[in-house]
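Batch manifest, entry 17 of 40.
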Amino acid sequence: MEPTLQGLFLYPEMMVIHTPHKPKRPCSYPGCPKLTDGRFCEEHTKQENQRYERYRRDPETKKRYGGNWIKIRTAFLAAHPLCEVCQQHGRLTPATEVHHIKDLSDGGTHDYTNLMPLCKSCHSQITASGWNKNGRRGEP
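Output type: structure tokens
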């Protein structure tokens, strides 16, 4: 038998080791018995996203993050594939989110000089700390 590459480890006997997953939980939509890994099942995730977009999301935010933003974000992540904060700490983590250094609501733009590639963890830390409100660029 040929060895199989699983993750970063080489197994000589076609042995695959599966890591345990969290048990699925019921969908949070009232009355839905489907089991899911997330908050809602696939069907109700779509409904919840539509409801959020329609009733809870600020109309001004909706305008700023339209189809044009999706194109800019995709191109920016292709050009900057690694998290900037993780790189400063010597880690190579794929960037999955784009952070505006100066918020759009504060006069920032979608220009590349105002964008920063981040992993989800770093972006959550920066957003929670209000990091860009005081203009610091560096560690969250």
